[in-house]
Design a protein that fits this description.
Blueprint lengths: L14 E7 L3 H18 L2 E2 L7 E9 L1 H8 L9 E5 L1 E5 L4 E5 L5 H16 L13 E5 L11 E5 L1 E10 L2 E11 L1
Antiparallel strand pairs: 1-3, 1-9, 2-7, 4-8, 5-6, 6-7, 9-10
């Protein structure tokens, strides 16, 4: 066999990952139900119900070593808490329609701060923007002035999630979870 007949070694692929609050099916169904009309009126491209989540720390593309370093951060003990999704908004620059809490629980702010502190100790770079917890509902959306019935989400764990290309969209795979 000649050298040209050999397959080139595969380059290890980077993995696009983030830490998130990952709702169960019942909470996802409730979010989709109470926001259905506002998503429709926004004219945006809706996010599939099975992809609804709240990002806590976006890490981006990681090598296998980076993924191992990220996995080594949790658990972070802040205790379970309830997240009230009761406010609709649109990020004007990105045209993302979202639902989030009017009042952010202290435990969530503590989780985000302690998670990033531990990630920075391992060489990760914290995003410069102020953390605004939210669940993305639609992309390319117009602003909609509307109130929604709140969804009470009992949060008990933190998930490490990988974002995988899936045609024009993405598919999310939960890699690990840790109790809060």
């Amino acid at each position: 066999m000649s050298p040209t007949d050999e397959a080139a070694p595969e380059r290890p692929r980077d993995r696009r990952v983030f830490f998130a609050l990952w709702p169960d099916g019942a909470v996802r169904t409730q979010i989709a139900r109470v926001t259905k009309d506002v998503v429709s009126r926004s004219g945006g491209r809706p996010i599939a119900k099975d992809r609804l989540h709240a990002t806590v720390a976006f890490l981006g593309n990681l090598t296998a070593a980076g993924l191992d370093a990220a996995r080594g951060v949790p658990p972070i003990q802040v205790g379970a808490f309830e997240l009230a999704l009761d406010t609709i908004g649109v990020f004007a620059k990105t045209r993302v329609l979202w639902v989030g809490p009017r009042t952010v629980p202290a435990a969530l702010l503590d989780l985000e701060r302690r998670l990033w502190d531990a990630l920075e100790e391992r060489g990760f770079v914290r995003e410069p923007r102020i953390y605004q917890p939210h669940v993305t509902l639609a992309r390319r959306a117009r602003p909609v002035e509307e109130a929604v019935d709140g969804v009470l989400w009992p949060v008990a764990d933190l998930a490490l999630v990988e974002s995988l290309p899936d045609g024009r969209n993405v598919h999310y795979e939960v890699l690990d979870t840790w109790p809060l």
